[in-house]
Each structure stands twice: as C-alpha cells, then as structure tokens.
Amino acid sequence: MKKLTFVLAAAGLMTLAACGQQQSENVENAAENVEAAVENLTENVEVATDNAVDAAANTLDNAAAAVDNAADAAGNAVEAK
Fold it and tell me: Is the full-model pTM beyond 0.85?
C-alpha cells in the first residue's frame, strides 16, 4: 500500500510539474507574442510618421511651386504691357 501511495503521489507530482512546464511555455510564448506586436506597432508608427512627413513636404513643395508660377505669370504680364 505504501508503494502504491508513493507511485500515485509521484505520478501526481509529475503531472503538476508537466502542467507547470506547459504554463511556463505559455507565458514565454505570450511574452514573445507581445514583443512581436510591439515591434510591429513601432514599425507601423514609423512608416505612418514617414508618410505624413513626406505628404507635408510634398504639400509645401507644391505650394512653393504655385507661388513661383504665380510670380512668373505676374512678371510675364508686366513684361507684356
């Protein structure tokens, strides 16, 4: 009876150890998933920031070109008189 109790106790402890191992692996996997998500979010924010800066620069370039064109048109109108 003592041996049976010992075997059952050992089996129970091994089961608990296996559950603990699985839980540890699950926590590690979850941490890795969070890390990957943060890296993806960081990359997406960087890309969005770059796109916004590029769009703003293009808008300013277009506005400057429009001013130059208007100045040229005014100069041409004065010369034509």
Answer: no
